[in-house]
């Protein structure tokens, strides 16, 4: 696992805390899950380590089949037979899950409800098992913008409305930890913005939101921290700003002399071509001035040296390509 | 109890449950209406084979002559004087005489329906994936399984009991309108009420077993076929010979049927290992422990999608 800048956690026995002293909302320690297929055993999680600190919005990124949903299913006790340790809000999973479940709201994969019941009835039946009454059901339906269609059959809902009902179910218990698996699926841009606002609002109340998503720009905007998983392992985790910055920053260099690339490469920097005859140099920000001085020392004078802003998508693709 | 209450609400909110009840009520009303309308008193005549004279058996009045040497094709035996009895039996609705058989017959039909209701209760949940959502609210698998089992059993039994009550009510109305109302005393009501409860309980247990099989097989068809196939096999295979004998004797369906049907008039009941209500109850109880308990153990360890 690649920790960027600061380690995310320090394992200290049962009362584990993250590296910055925050208590952990979710901890996965060397979790392994394998499935039997016709071609033999396939590892869905291959020793996944993950620590989600309490508070804020935590993004969980990974390509299809990377193990995101399997990890979430292991965390909420839907998956039995996983090896390793899973803890959620301090409770061992699945053993202590019943004592914790009231503090956890989750939307796992697609929202699954009875198609012939209304959205309201579906939520009322779910809430009844935990002693949650109709007023709370009405409140969460309004919160996700489904109040007007609450009494329509679930089967008549659009994909986005079904997703909203799934989020409403996750919010029903007024949870301390909200786990959302691809919550933006099927939502229009307005809906995506609403989900982002909702996640930020929940986090602003001191709760933890754990969200897996493919929409990297959304994660970049909504999340405080992220973890990237590939092939069943966590390959990077940290604050979004830290991940974006990385250990090296990237600079665009514009220079007319063809010798420039060779000079910079000989210095040990990674140089890659870019558009319009420019090229990109990966260099520690504190040493960016050395690019200028190195080229000047070789009698080459550049006309542009500008930092290139990296998106989370760039980081994700970079890391997952490295991982593969 | 909250879990059981929720599951019962979910059970009765299902369209298949409501539709089945309405269909059953319609069928009961239709059948009783037809039998009541077509019912008529029996007419018994005696025919003297020597003279061909036909006499009304009730009044002794001569009502015609068939001619000597001519024997009618339908006859009902002979009386003490050697005269041939002909005529039609009484087909009027007679609640006092027929209610017991009607409850059993309806019960057998409802037993098949119970397999569908029980299996589809959880089969539908696998179909839409709603079991995952439920387990995010109640992760104790045993509690969920037992609540669903109890809800299916209680719900189906209540539905069956309501249908049996409607059968009794419809037969009573039919008997009053165009039939025989006789022998409706305290013991009659007590016996028929006990019988209806027993039949409803068997139907509830049948639904629970079908539900349990489906919880592991994850397909509605598996739960239904597992029990209906037994019923077919019981009649196809010889229950007294070869390796099939133990299967036939001790299959779950045998216990259910033995508890459901009174064997006072059944043929060859002594050939069957289980032929009393007590035997049926015992066999069924054993299967409930094996199937519901075994499924609970497997469900607690399985991944739910």
- Name the structural class of chain B: alpha+beta
Q: Give the strand tally of chain A.
A: 17
Oligomer: heterodimer
Q: Helical content of chain A, roughly? A: 25-40%
Approximately how much beta-strand content do the residues of chain B carry? 5-15%
Helicity level of chain B, as a percent range?
55-70%
What general outline of chain B do the C-alpha atoms trace? Answer: elongated
- The overall average pLDDT of chain A, rounded, is 82
The number of helical runs of chain B is 10
Topology:
The complex is a heterodimer of chains A (324) and B (305).
Chain A: E1 2-3, E2 9-10, E3 17-18, E4 24-37, E5 40-53, E6 56-62, H1 68-75, E7 83-88, E8 91-93, H2 97-100, E9 104-107, H3 119-128, H4 134-143, H5 159-171, E10 177-181, H6 189-204, E11 208-212, H7 216-222, E12 225-230, E13 233-239, H8 240-245, E14 249-254, H9 260-266, E15 270-273, E16 279-283, H10 289-297, E17 304-308, H11 312-323
Parallel strand pairs in A: 1-13, 6-11, 6-12, 9-10, 10-11
Antiparallel strand pairs in A: 2-3, 4-5, 4-7, 7-8, 12-13, 14-16, 14-17, 15-16
Helix pairs in contact in A: 3-4, 4-5
Chain B: H1 2-13, H2 15-38, E1 43-47, E2 53-56, E3 62-65, E4 84-88, E5 93-94, H3 95-128, H4 130-135, H5 141-178, E6 179-180, H6 186-217, H7 220-236, H8 244-250, H9 252-260, H10 277-301
Parallel strand pairs in B: 5-6
Antiparallel strand pairs in B: 1-2, 1-4, 2-3
Helix pairs in contact in B: 1-5, 2-5, 3-5, 3-6, 3-7, 5-6, 5-10, 6-7, 6-9, 6-10, 9-10
